[in-house]
Specification:
This protein is mainly beta. The protein has one helix and 56 strands. A hairpin with a 6-residue loop joins strand 38 and strand 39.
Length: about 650
């Protein structure tokens, strides 16, 4: 019976085109039940319960729970081992800290101090911190016994958490605050007139200024990023991309004139410059020390580094690719680092930088999906490329060091070409290497790019800002380049997989078919209506959607010269795809995925649940993958897809 069951499971796997691993769920993670008809979810954002930027992340509940809050004040709790969300609460959170077993402390923008259950987010106790203005920033001591708060009006006060009473005299004109782990030292950013300011280190009990450094506040009152270690170090991260590590001694006598210390006269233990060896300087967005104070993690706009501060000479940092690292924290034992990117959290091993777990697929709109014959799926968005195996598990993540406006995946699934402005880069998905390919034309804004039939030549198109004309070109790895203007304003194109033909929309009024490598016009379709919607091209089938005021989808078969359309009740088509047998899939507002059937009828595939930005069929036409603006995909099993011709 057992062998018969195994054969049955194998047969089902062959029929559905995917490998089923015993004991392994087919879904990449657990974001609630799958819609009817969907068989897998790729890249669902388990910890993306808010679209706002994550402000901070801390480890609570004796290391079992991650607590984080976003710019809207939403408190979110997730399991530190699996990343699965546990609970959330709209409490107006400004800062979070751990408190004993199973509890977390939360400071709210309304000046309240909450004791919260670390697994359910339920408020157990509530007290007020005696501040009149809205709390903008807050910082806890390591043991949670003290908290420093800064209001939007620039007032700062340190409180005893147990008694909710002030500990020291208040301070004025304060932007940022940071308490050391013992709660004895306070680092603050105090602004002056205009864009001037200073970073001060104070003894909390006496209020004495132990150190002061003048600084420029180019971005307003946000200023640099501050972090304390348990060993008397203060890290300061600047907008200019450098990090200073200061050695502090709270028992030392303060200088006679601390206000006279300026940037040139100040002394610090070490200066670090993230990205200097790669020709890039990033704004420092977050800092975190290991418990022993010997390692420092630096988060920046597009990366994460770790330094061994005990190493002699300049240390080469580890490079962790990702989005903007708004918050970082070491896990208990310092063996892992949790980093918050946008609205999700990624866990890395320390100090190797190996990714342990990511709670996100993509951080934004998916623009391209490619299903390979071996069952792998490649998804691409502005934040990079993800490769998923046949069971829906993430196997590779590649971040592209540019703002992506257009991209394409090779037929073999081993390379991605991406366009940014007027530049092209090629990414090797096997190694993760990203290298520049070419700068195609001055003043050109690329909005279309594709691999030609030979899987090595790159086709590109974009508008020239100087002439307002649509330019196209080819580029191959040997450096041969052809550039040509198609002679009309605006435009975008899509290439037919496995073919050198390219369909180009001119001014949302005409559709031209070109031979891509030579840019010879093969066909022109001249409809009498707006064709501003999505365009899909495959074999002899060309499909596009009319504008929202028309509400129709059109399929044209080039070899027969025939055309059919389907009324959509004035609905906008958000994405379209053509299967290998001419089956056309479209996505409608709200996430509805439909097949265009015979007699102008629509056959429902399912409800994606979010607005769909990309569609793609599997090579055998049995599966349909839909991608959304939140960075996740659903895989649909098409039992029998209707055909148009």
């Amino acid at each position: 019976m057992a062998s018969w069951l195994r054969r049955l499971v194998g047969a089902i796997a062959l029929m559905t085109g995917a490998a089923l691993v015993p004991g392994q769920p087919l879904r990449a993670n657990d974001e609630g039940p799958l819609p009817a008809g969907a068989r897998a979810r790729l890249g669902a954002a388990r910890t993306s319960t808010s679209s706002a930027r994550v402000v901070s992340v801390v480890v609570v509940d004796e290391g079992r729970t991650l607590a984080r809050h976003d710019a809207n004040g939403l408190l979110m709790l997730s399991d530190a081992a699996s990343g699965v969300d546990l609970a959330e609460a709209e409490v107006g959170a400004v800062a979070v800290a751990r408190r004993g077993a199973g509890e977390a402390l939360v400071v709210t923008s309304g000046g309240e101090l909450l004791v919260v259950d670390a697994r359910t987010a339920r408020v157990r106790e509530r007290s007020h911190l005696l501040v009149d203005a809205k709390v903008a920033r807050a910082s806890f001591s390591g043991d949670g016994r003290r908290v420093a708060v800064a209001t939007r009006a620039g007032q700062m006060q340190v409180f005893d958490v147990e008694r909710a009473r002030p500990v020291a005299a208040p301070q004025e004109r304060v932007g940022q605050v940071a308490l050391d782990p013992d709660g004895a030292l306070l680092a603050l950013l105090r602004w002056g007139d205009g864009q001037s300011g200073a970073i001060e280190v104070l003894d909390v009990e006496s209020g004495r200024v132990l150190r002061r450094r003048r600084c420029s506040l180019r971005g307003g009152r946000v200023g640099p990023t501050l972090a304390f270690s348990t060993t008397g170090r203060l890290a300061v991260g600047w907008r200019e991309g450098r990090v200073e590590v200061h050695r502090l001694d709270r028992h030392a006598e303060p200088p006679a004139e601390p206000e006279d210390q300026d940037a040139d006269g100040d002394r610090f233990e070490r200066e670090l410059t993230p990205g200097a060896g790669r020709g890039a300087i990033f704004e420092v967005t977050s800092l975190a020390f290991a418990r022993d104070g010997a390692r420092l993690v630096v988060g920046a706009e597009t990366a994460l580094w770790e330094w061994d501060l005990a190493a002699a000479g300049p240390a080469e940092p580890s490079w962790f690719a990702g989005a903007r690292a708004d918050a970082v924290v070491f896990a208990p034992g310092d063996a892992q680092v949790h980093a918050a990117w946008s609205a999700g959290v990624t866990t890395f091993e320390s100090p190797s930088g190996a990714e342990v777990r990511s709670e996100r697929g993509h951080a934004g709109t998916i623009g391209k999906i490619r299903r390979l014959p071996d069952g792998r799926t490649i998804t691409a968005a502005v934040d990079g490329v993800r490769v998923w195996d046949a069971g829906g598990r993430l196997v590779r993540r590649v971040t592209l060091p540019l703002t992506v406006f257009a991209l394409d995946v090779s037929a073999a699934g081993d390379r991605v070409v991406a366009a940014s402005g007027g530049d092209l880069v090629v990414c090797d998905l096997d190694t993760g290497e990203v290298r520049p390919l070419a700068t195609v034309r001055p003043n050109t804004h690329l909005n279309s790019v594709a691999f030609a039939k030979d899987d090595r030549t790159v086709l590109w198109g974009g508008s020239d800002g100087a002439t307002d004309a649509f330019w196209v070109g080819t580029h191959d790895p040997d450096g041969a380049r052809t550039t040509r203007s198609l002679g009309f304003v605006g435009g975008r194109f899509v290439a037919a997989p496995g073919s050198d033909r390219v369909a180009v929309i001119e001014n949302v009024e005409r559709v031209h078919v070109y031979d891509g490598p030579t840019w010879t016009r093969v066909r022109t379709l001249d409809p009498d209506w707006n064709c501003s919607g999505p365009l899909a091209f495959r074999g002899d089938w060309l499909a596009w959607a009319r504008g929202p005021s028309y509400g129709a989808a059109v399929l044209h078969r080039l070899d027969l010269g025939s055309e059919r359309s389907s009324r959509l009740d004035d609905l906008t088509v958000t994405a379209a795809a053509i299967g290998p047998d001419g089956t056309v899939a479209i996505a409608l507002p709200g996430g509805r995925v439909e097949i265009l059937g015979e007699r102008d009828a629509l056959v429902a595939v399912g409800d994606h649940g979010r607005s769909v930005s990309a569609l793609e069929f599997s090579p055998d036409g049995r599966l349909l993958i839909s991608g959304d603006h939140a960075g996740s995909c659903l895989v649909w099993n098409l039992k029998r897809a209707p055909r148009w011709f």
